[in-house]
Amino acid sequence: MIKRRLILIFLLFFLLSVAESAVAKVYIDLSAPQAKRLPIAIQDFKISASVDAETAESAKGLNDELMDTLKSDLKFSGLFNIIDRSAYIEDPKKAGLTESEIDFKQWRAVGADALIKGVVMVEKDSLIVEVRFFDCVTEKQIIGKRYIGSLSSPRRVIHYFTDQLYEELTGRKGIFTTRLLFISDKDGNKEVYMSDYDGKNAVKITKNRSINLSPQWAPDGKRIIYVSYKKGSPNLHMLDLRTGKDTVVSGRPGINIGGRFSPDGAKVALTLSGDKSPELYVLDLNTEEYKRLTDNYGIDVSPSWSPDGTKLAYVSDVSGNPHIFVLDLLSGNAKRLTFNGKYNSSPAWSPDGRLIAWSRSDTGPFNIWVMQPDGTGATQLTFEGSNRSPSWSPDGRYLVYSSASRGSSSLYIMRSDGTGQIKLTTGVGGEKSPVWSPFLQ
Q: HSE-up of 70 (CA within 13 Å, CB side)?
């Protein structure tokens, strides 16, 4: 009797382990030094049979943009090897969208470990997209999502899917629905623009025909602050992206520049005209009280908060040339981090707090560097052109920056180790001072 019970218990554990392995997630270890890219096939999405001929033609154009966005997102992630469509065996006209309708052997035969299929529908002003991700090895559907979006922004729909796919496979949030802020003087005035993470869908969000500089995101991604001369002198403004309401956050006599939200969004670090020279201050947004942080004969600008809100990296020329310093907000002590370079600027703390990126010029063009918060481990990441204003992606895997050659400035993205540099095409031109958004809701 006891022996029989032991056998039953053994069989139960065996069946549970088999069931668990059958539905196990595909997992990609981002920390692996040379992780193998996942071979993936992407079949053109089907157009729903329920639409009429005119709508079907419109849906086809949208479908092309959806596929272009999907491939671009997956390629950008660096996690996938997209198999060329010419190798596909399955007849797309007979292809199904469910596990039982898919001949996974055909996909494995072309080397695909994963497969994406979908269907596109258009209903009035809405775009409806169903996307499914399959594991060709286990022959199981891993993700199946239905998205309803606007006909005017089909790329956004795919960005949501790739965000969820990335998190499913890696356990980390995706950055495909994040956005960028940047400055351009294309129309003769320096205005603030916003785009998707890849530079697409760029729109002008200030239209005051003045000089607007240094845009920065609030931690909630719903507001931005920026410097504007639209009232004559450089004041710090806050723009609510949901309502369009624009208010002056700091308008003291003199300069009000370089504003940066604290990690909790309750305070803003900025530079004001001091008694001796421009100094760093912290403004409490609730009490509207200012606290002075520096007091010297140097120019202190470009504050950047550490992720825990206890320190500020900033630029000061108190020791001669502009260098990067770190101020401990608890003790009030400042430490100089850089000792090389003729001009050091634009410090940006990584989301995990392990690195500070900045721009450095020795005797010529600026380049992007990173170092540890104690000033050690300085590493140059860019070597061509003049590269400025680094800003981290919210997951810390990438940096966006502006790069100029022959007088023209554009936006670029690279991995945090300096590899994989990609030029972004916004359709605007003359882009500078990019800032990557936090994760958006």
A: 27
Other Cβ atoms within 10 Å of 72 Cβ, number: 17
Q: How far apart are CA 125 and CA 127, in angstroms?
A: 7
**pLDDT tens sequence across 257-306:** 999 999 999 999 999 997 889 999 999 999 999 999 999 999 999 999 99
Q: Is the dihedral of CA 85, 178, 415, 33 positive or negative?
A: negative
Residue among 337, 262, 263, 339 nearest 293 (CA): 262
Q: What is the dihedral of CA 390, 393, 398, 404, to 10 degrees?
A: -30
In order of start, what are the domains of the chain with their CATH numbers? 34-170 (3.40.50.10070), 179-436 (2.120.10.30)
CA 182, distance to chain mean position in Å, is 13
Phi, psi of 401 (to 5 degrees): -155, 165
Strands (E), 296-333: 300-305, 311-316, 323-328
Q: Both ends of the chain: CA-CA distance in Å?
A: 58
